[in-house]
Amino acid sequence: MLSFRPATPTSSARTAAIVLVAVVLILALVPAGLLMAPRSLSYRLDPSTLQVEARMGPLDLGRTVERSRVREARPITVRGASRQAGTAVDGFCHGRWSIDEVGVVWMATSCTSEAVLVEIEGEEHPWVLSPVDPAAFLAAIPSGTGSFEAMPSPPASPFLAFAGVFVFVLVAGTFGLLLISPARLRFDVGEGSLWVRTAWGTRRVPLEGATLRADPQARPTLRLFGIGMPGHQVGRYRVSGRTAQIYVSDVRKAVWVEPSQGLPVLITPEDVDGFLIAARQAQGAS
User: Fold this and answer.
1) Deepest of 11, 36, 66, 207, by most Cβ within 10 A of its Cβ?
2) Would you give the distance in Å from CA 127 to the centre of its chain?
3) What are the residues whose beta carbons fall under 8 Å from the beta carbon of 9, sequence distance 6 or more?
4) β 59-60/49-56 pair status
5) Residue 174's CB: how many other CB atoms inside 10 A?
6) What are phi and psi of 208, to 5 degrees?
């Protein structure tokens, strides 16, 4: 049995694949890192300012305002909260939210229903905070000072664990597609068949009665199912107006293997001439 490795992707395809890997990893790992990052939330009143001390990992999400600009502070019960922008993880609700009976607010709470609404002159939206002792916090607003921890958060939901598992599977799957799949691809010819070996299994294509031809003009146009990355397209695609099973790394070296029955197969061996010679010899021997 003769083995042929796939064509080496073009430099532009390799560059595009590297960019794709970087983008996917950033999109996957940054949110995962923030989900798992330590979070802290507290409120401080000093003689001249009201400070919201909010951190998520390395991000400082706090705000400070002059106490002279605080017009009103009152307890509220948060109902119908809907996040417009910001964070909504267990025990850390931060950013721009909309809540019933108030509208749009800037929220920095531990996701509890009991909270304090602070109206501030010059701020587009009121603030919603959740000090552990709302009465003491409200009493200190006019002239008092002190530091107030956020109220304990509600029991954690299983969503965070699920999200962590999902992100791990996404990252692992991406590396599998980008690293394992191209490295395992091989085209073997022998025993009257083409054997396409991938990381996920082997596909046998009988060569008896098959049409074999090079077609450097072939271009996959629509992915129906499978992998679609620069320099590595594997699966079922529309090619030249018909459906085909493809294993493509450089379309300039495309070869059609069209069996007498079943879908046509498009492959891109590095040695096109050598593959065609071996495949035609295997046809004669079958």
Assistant:
1) 207
2) 32
3) 17, 230, 231, 232, 249, 250
4) antiparallel
5) 17
6) -65, 125
Q: Give which of 180, 186, 271 is closest to 229, Cα–Cα.
A: 180
> Pairing between strand 49-56 and 201-206?
unpaired
Nearest to 215 by CA among 264, 249, 251: 251
Nearest to 268 by CA among 227, 220, 222: 220
153 vs 143: CA distance, rounded Å: 28
Q: What domains lie within the chain, and their CATH numbers?
A: 2-26+169-285 (2.30.29), 41-152 (no CATH)
SS3 of residue 260 by DSSP: coil
Q: What is the pLDDT along the chain (286 residues), one digit of tens a residue?
A: 899 999 998 888 888 877 877 787 777 666 666 666 788 999 999 999 999 999 988 889 999 999 999 999 999 999 999 999 998 887 899 999 999 999 999 999 999 999 999 999 999 999 999 999 999 999 999 889 999 999 886 555 566 556 666 766 776 676 666 677 788 899 999 999 999 999 888 999 999 999 999 999 999 999 999 888 888 899 999 998 899 999 999 999 999 999 999 999 999 999 999 999 999 998 876 5
User: Which amino acid type is present at position 55?
Assistant: R
User: How many Å apart are CA 91 and CA 8, to the nearest integer?
Assistant: 50
At 187, the amino acid letter reads F
142: tokens are 């006019």
Structure tokens of 156? 């954690």
